[in-house]
Amino acid sequence: xGMPVTQQQAPKPDSRQIAFRVIHxxxxxxxxxxxxxxxxxxxxxxxxxxxxxxxxxRRQFDLQDRHYQVTFPDAIRRIITQGAVDIGRLxxxxxxxxxxxxxxxxxxxxxxxxxxxxxxxxxMNEAHGGKVPVRLNVERASPALRLYLRHGFTPTGQxxxxxxxxxxxxxxxxxx
Length: 176
What we know:
Layout: E1 18-22, H1 28-39, H2 50-71, E2 76-82, E3 85-94, E4 99-106, H3 115-130, E5 134-139, H4 144-150, E6 154-159, E7 162-167
Parallel strand pairs: 4-5
Antiparallel strand pairs: 1-2, 2-3, 3-4, 5-7, 6-7
Helix pairs in contact: 1-2
């Protein structure tokens, strides 16, 4: 008798590995859930019913999605995954003059674990290699503002409730 033949198993995906996947038409509900999770802090003091909140958020999500498609038609739009689980969304537009983060959002259960920092640093490294700044807008009251300020982004302007932020790659040795 010969040795038993065993099939080699494909390696299991690392459940901690962060990746990006293309967005499909079936992802609309997930993208809405990510969007709605970024607005939860705004509703803490409202007296709206859950149905009113959901209707408002759905209208805002649809308007934002149309705005992004019209304003940034060449943007790269991806779902952020960890292992086989969808955890967020990242929309970026690579331009000659800058790398623009249009939207970068993680679900609450993925926040505070260093994932956002790792992705942001990766984008900053990409911009540094191209010697271009990273630019984005964030709501003044958004908790995400702290992440960007902590990583060296500086305010460059303000429009309504949003602050324009920019990070510039170092151009040479820093003076002490």
